[in-house]
């Protein structure tokens, strides 16, 4: 046992040396990111439905603020809110519903959130629309397979309200955990229709067809954003929020199908 | 008593007294690492609301669905997985190594991707699913059968790998002796090999069942989530976490308690370990 040790130690040293060398090589390559000391990172927790638009806004932020990097954590708003309350080191929180933002403001971790954009529901059907769905009432037909978001997530809560407003009672085949999962079921043709956000229909790039319906106007979803009070990056967090609510940010969002607040 | 149990008992204990620190310390750390998250759940559990939450019909429904689907999935895994393990351990054919690697695919694949893969094959517009739908009118997604399929897909490798290991460790001379006495290969398998590796099968089935019981990603992707139909406990826990983290903790503890009780009682009865 003892005799083996030196050989192991040597191996460990060799590995360590190799790691150092590799790291050094990485650092000296021309297009490596600037060294950690000069880069300030803004960590943004954002609703999954903001993935495309916020990535774009993040690039604009990095271009406008040299020496900064934006790091995103996209996910279900409720999960993100829980993570923030449990002490995740986030600078900015952009939620898909006021209710999930409230979790964070109730814990005094954010003050005065701003509504920066709004999203509306649409019926999504496979591009060939096999069940010939034209409106909300068609979803109640027994032969039409419908996917909804679960009521616990914002798109599901909105769907329930829209159906109530329309007086349509449906039995979905599944209550999905988030809007992207709901959309996937339509894209794969496993369901005939689903209620998702307009932005998701646009983001699918033609794989699904969107059908607007009038009751959607009654359940428009507000998206609040706030710099967090314990933001590790301080005022950079507020600068990111400012960019999102600026004309530049709003343009990115409306192009993706969001509506101005 | 199983042959391997006899083997272990007849073996003398090591003579030296104390377990070496080099093993005890990492073992203690390992145990703490596994058990502390559970302690976290226990500390945060809202004990006062426990009875009322347990009485909620959808909790019992999800629990029942979880137990039933995990058990059926395990049965399917045993029916298909034991023969597969036997083929891998006791026959030789070109490409066996590739086949063994393929068996572990569901272990490596993120379960959600596994669920999408199942949809692409068994979904309404999937390669096989299309035919199932048009010929028999069977569609698996969004059905309880779909839950079983997703769980069996993810859990089967655990059984196959355990049983294959047991088959490799079992002495083939018993099989050979039986064969020289005139037993056919099927009889040898049934009367000699199977009893020899029974503890391995039991261990594999336990792993398989536990994995199926906790399955989340493939299930929600392939079978969807609808209370009473496809909403198993892990799915109920995940959705409860969105709005009521405390309810999620209660549900997780129920699932844990039930599975620990079942596994502990099975172990006493069948595996008969000290």
UniProtKB/TrEMBL annotation, chain A:
InterPro entries registered for this protein in UniProt: ModA, ModA/WtpA
GO molecular function: metal ion binding; molybdate ion binding
Keyword Coiled coil: no
Signal peptide interval: 1-23
PROSITE patterns noted in UniProt: PROKAR_LIPOPROTEIN
Binding annotation for molybdate: 49, 77, 179, 197
BP GO terms, sorted: molybdate ion transport
Keywords recorded for this protein, A-Z: Metal-binding, Molybdenum, Signal
Residue ranges of the TM segments: none
Family: Belongs to the bacterial solute-binding protein ModA family.
PANTHER family: MOLYBDATE-BINDING PERIPLASMIC PROTEIN, SULFATE-BINDING PROTEIN
Record's protein name: Molybdate transport system substrate-binding protein
From TrEMBL, chain B:
UniProt topology in membrane: Multi-pass membrane protein
Example of a GO MF term: molybdate ion transmembrane transporter activity
Transmembrane regions: 21-43, 63-89, 101-122, 142-163, 192-212, 247-266
Name of the protein in its database record: Molybdenum transport system permease
GO CC annotations on file: plasma membrane
Keyword Heme: no
Function summary: Part of the binding-protein-dependent transport system for molybdenum; probably responsible for the translocation of the substrate across the membrane.
